[in-house]
Write a structure and sequence with these properties.
With 256 residues, this protein is an alpha/beta fold. Helices cover 36% and strands 21% of the residues. The chain has a single domain, classed as Rossmann fold, CATH 3.40.50. Strands 1-2-3-5-4-6-7-8-9 form a nine-stranded mixed sheet, sandwiched between helices. It binds 3-(4-hydroxy-3-methoxyphenyl)-2-propenoic acid. The site of 3-(4-hydroxy-3-methoxyphenyl)-2-propenoic acid has 9 residues, from loops.
Length: 256
């Protein structure tokens, strides 16, 4: 496996972010993905995995460069607030030319964000599970994302509850399916989710997506955490979303 290490402080209290490549049968190319391993990472232990998705203007570097998730997570570990986990930051635009260039709203690029579901399930998750010491049951797999990646999170997460028990959407975009499509069987959905997190900035023009989604969750009795943050469609909201969501996942659902 090719490895390119991005931040090696060498400090035992710091996690590490590397760029690795996986073969995607879905896209027909080798695709780059960033992987965060926690402080004290060892192959003698098995970790749960959070898949963390970017927005329409980003790629596998977006969270790392703008959200600094390694700093957020390292600090939470230091404070004893986080379960040890691996965080995988893929490129959610599943097409050969997957850079955030040109018309980001071009139909083939929007379609590539839909196609990512197959890349994730058929290519990336098997790659992660073959190359990292990870737990593979659904309670040990979470998915979260911002904006376009928040929509992907809801679309993929809800239709694959056999794979994901923890779902976090930060400012989900209009690619989010209608709530009735997301959860046609609300009781079944409610019974299987360990955590459903939805947050959005109060000044975000896309807040209507969160509003219609959470209204349905409430009407249908699907337990969820809704956080309306100050601010708009921006990084403070998404960093805070990661910080809050990550602290709540991979713990016993009964709070034992
Ligand atoms: C849209 C507006 C915004 C849309 C997607 C976005 C697919 C995504 C924004 C982002 O990821 O920041 O109409 O449609």
């Amino acid at each position: 496996m090719n490895r390119q290490i991005s931040n090696t402080s060498g400090h035992p209290h710091c996690g590490r972010v590397e760029i690795v490549e996986y073969d995607s049968t879905t896209v027909g190319t080798r695709r780059k993905v960033r992987v965060y391993t926690p402080p004290g990472f060892t192959r003698d232990q098995e970790y749960p995995v959070l898949y963390l998705l970017h927005g329409i203007g980003g790629d596998e570097n977006e969270w790392f460069e703008h959200g600094e998730p390694h700093l957020i997570l390292d600090r939470l570990y230091g404070d004893g607030k986080l379960m040890p986990m691996i965080v995988v930051m893929p490129n959610g635009r599943a097409m050969p030319e997957d850079r955030a260039e040109g018309d980001l709203f071009a139909p083939e690029k929007i379609q590539a964000f839909e196609r990512f579901e197959l890349d994730l399930l058929h290519d990336l998750i098997p790659f992660v599970e073959a190359n990292y010491p990870v737990k593979t049951e659904r309670e040990s797999r979470a998915i979260a994302g911002l904006s376009m990646g928040g929509g992907q999170t809801l679309n993929i997460g809800f239709s694959h509850l056999e794979h994901f028990a923890w779902i976090g959407a930060f400012s989900p975009a209009p690619n989010t399916k209608s709530p009735e499509q997301l959860a046609p069987n609300p009781q079944e959905t409610a019974a299987r989710l360990s955590l459903l997190w939805l947050s959005c900035g109060e000044e975000d023009d896309l807040k209507y997506v969160s509003d219609r989604t959470r209204a349905y969750f409430s009407e249908q009795g699907i337990p969820h955490v809704w956080v309306e943050e100050s601010g708009g469609h921006d990084w403070p909201v998404w960093r805070n979303g990661l910080s809050e969501f990550s602290q709540r996942i991979f713990r016993s659902v009964r709070g034992e």
